[in-house]
Design brief:
Structural class: alpha+beta
Number of domains: 2
Number of helices: 7
Strand content: 25-35%
């Protein structure tokens, strides 16, 4: 049974939640460049991605060699860590995020497969910041995930070439990114717009009005370049929040700082689930907390299991959701 059906069942029981499991999308054929990172052997191009002549940048420090060098510096720093080792020798492509959002998606691909992503934002003074990052074969805005969803919704045929569809569509899908927790594909279906979760690819029960109160995330407090020294990190095994639904009716952790959350997470601790209440409490998403990167300068990024790993700033999570810890010895 799909997770969203479980959520509907919970609503009927009066629990009042909607859990969304979404499959995400990848690169629309807006302006894009493909780049290679150093390696012993040059990897193959991702089949579902073709470079165009445009760069997809605005101006100032966000264009040309300066932009490219910052992206490659971030990728190089992260790929030195074991969990991102597969990024060595990868290619990367960039795509602009939604109209007026001053951000870019960086998709990494290697030997024909998507293997990770970065989201880069631009501050008011033109500096680039690393808003979020993650690894896995279902990255944020994965084209492969979008393709599967469009087939399921019967918007394209199974034998349709995704690139041909994106290039020939009179109204190509848009990547909307208001925050790490508000990332969707906006897709035209006949006379209406539909919204598809950018990570899981599931159709969301949203309308244009769902976004009116949202303001794009300000990346000023996000990671700079070069990356600061990592003070500590933790990597835990993933778990399924639906295996134990203590987060439905339990009390959230009372946290006043990121350090309190980091102290609550560990191999000897009970599992912690983050729940995000989004779009005017229309969508509730439970995600397993599976570690963190605690960067110097008080920049903690929490590791979430979400169709692969995602590292998201603690302040974003604290703004839009709560953390729940399973009670020791309890079944819920």
């Amino acid at each position: 049974m799909h997770r969203w059906l479980l959520a509907v069942t919970a609503l009927v029981l009066g629990i009042g939640f909607m859990a969304v499991r979404a499959s995400e999308s990848a690169a629309l054929q807006q302006k894009m460049e493909t780049h290679s990172l150093p390696s012993a052997a040059a990897p193959a191009e991702l089949p579902l991605s073709t470079p165009s002549s445009g760069i997809g940048t605005d101006n100032g420090d966000n264009s040309g060699a300066s932009f490219d060098s910052q992206i490659e510096a971030w990728i190089g720093s992260l790929s030195a860590r074991d969990e991102f080792r597969s990024w060595l020798g990868a290619k990367w492509s960039r795509y602009p995020l939604g109209p007026g959002m001053h951000g870019w998606l960086i998709l990494l691909h290697k030997e024909g497969k998507e293997i990770g992503y970065l989201v880069v934002g631009s501050t008011e003074d033109g500096k680039l910041k690393l808003t979020e990052y993650g690894a896995g074969d279902s990255p944020l805005f994965s084209l492969n995930t979008l393709y599967r969803t469009l087939v399921q919704l019967e918007l394209i045929r199974t034998d349709t070439d995704p690139i041909v569809y994106l290039q020939s569509s009179p109204v190509p899908p848009d990547r909307l990114y208001f925050s790490p927790l508000h990332a969707v594909w906006k897709v035209k279906r006949e006379s209406e717009w539909i919204y598809i979760d950018a990570k899981t690819g599931e159709l969301l029960p949203l309308s244009d009005q769902s976004f009116l109160s949202l303001q794009p995330y300000d990346p000023a407090a996000a990671l700079p370049n070069p990356l600061p020294r990592m003070e500590r990190s933790l990597l835990l095994s993933p778990f399924d929040p639906f295996d134990n639904t203590f987060w439905i009716d339990g009390k959230p952790l009372s946290l006043t700082s990121a350090s309190e959350l980091l102290a609550s997470v560990g191999p000897e601790r009970q599992p912690v689930t983050f729940t995000a209440n989004l779009y005017g409490k229309t969508v509730l998403v439970p995600l397993a907390v599976t570690g963190y990167h605690d960067w110097g300068g008080n920049l903690p990024y929490v590791r979430l299991e979400h169709e692969g790993e995602r590292y998201i700033p603690f302040d974003v999570l604290a703004q839009y959701g709560s953390f729940y810890q399973r009670r020791a010895g309890g079944s819920t």
